[in-house]
Amino acid sequence: MNLLNEPKIELHCHLDGSVRVETIIDIAEKEGIPLPTVDKEELEKELIAPSECPSLDEYLKRFSLPNKVMQSKESLKRITFELFEDAARENVKYLEVRFGPLLHTLKGLDIEEVIQSVIDGMRDAENRYEIKGNIILSCLRSMPVEGAFDVVEKGKKFLGKGVVAIDLCASEDEGFSKRFVEPITLAKEYGYRVTIHAGETGSGKNVLEAIELLGAERIGHGIYIKDYDAAYKKVKENQIVLEICPTSNVQTKAVNLFSEHPIYKFHEDGIKVTINTDNRTVSDTTMSKEIDLVDDEFNLSKEDYRQIYINSVEASFADQETKEWCLAQY
């Protein structure tokens, strides 16, 4: 299947995992931020996770360096614009970008300034390219629950103005959903949509709890429902959409090999799957690469891809007008 010209929808992409290497070097130089090296090829070794990453936690270490150059309004705006630019150049029609606002307050920005800067970068790209987007605010499970309340409260004013949803991400521990019931419930009351990282590192039960306790409409990854019947049944019966990121899943050892990835079995069994990059820089990937990987392993038909595209549009947190525009692109 010729994927170069196919329209694409991406629902799971982390801003801080998708920063151009050249941009990191440039911002660091302008803002006086020390880097381990300014050689592009050497810096890539620090930023790109190996295919044989021993764990999710090891994979997540690659985010500390980009975060250093994401502490000013100008840098956040630029990095967001460039991510949307990169996506538009490979015919992504709609992109939902997620990031943790609290990570970008280390040099004095407040949460609202951080969110506004990211929205500004997205709007600039929408005005220049044939792409539309929205923002998902991530709360880190590794931070105190109070931080999630801060993000929910400060992000509320941006709902319908670029922000659409709330997310929980970072290192995944068993039973995390119980700690975050209150802030996520509040977020839903305010009008946030809900997507939760779960089932990425060995616990299908986490997926079940993300749906039952937090009201997750989509699940980031969800791979381990394959080993937990109750979660599998809940996802299938409730038509919960899985945001699957093939390269990342192999890197973090959610699966050992691409050939063992359950994405196509899920798809064949009627579970709604979407294909995503997760982190364009950390996983050294693009949407075209991810779709190619799935196609190479499982021989996607034109109808398979069309269904995944439609699933992605329908599962997006976009308004109806944007969804209709996206469907018209295929």
TrEMBL record:
Residues 7-324 form the Adenosine deaminase domain. It catalyses: 2'-deoxyadenosine + H2O + H(+) = 2'-deoxyinosine + NH4(+); adenosine + H2O + H(+) = inosine + NH4(+). Its cofactor is Zn(2+). The keyword GTP-binding does not apply. Gene3D superfamilies: Metal-dependent hydrolases. It comes from the Bacteria. Its EC number is 3.5.4.4. The active site is at E200 (proton donor). The record marks H221 as: Important for catalytic activity. One of its GO terms (molecular function) is zinc ion binding. HAMAP family: A_deaminase (MF_00540). Catalyzes the hydrolytic deamination of adenosine and 2-deoxyadenosine. Belongs to the metallo-dependent hydrolases superfamily. Adenosine and AMP deaminases family. Adenosine deaminase subfamily. This is Adenosine deaminase.
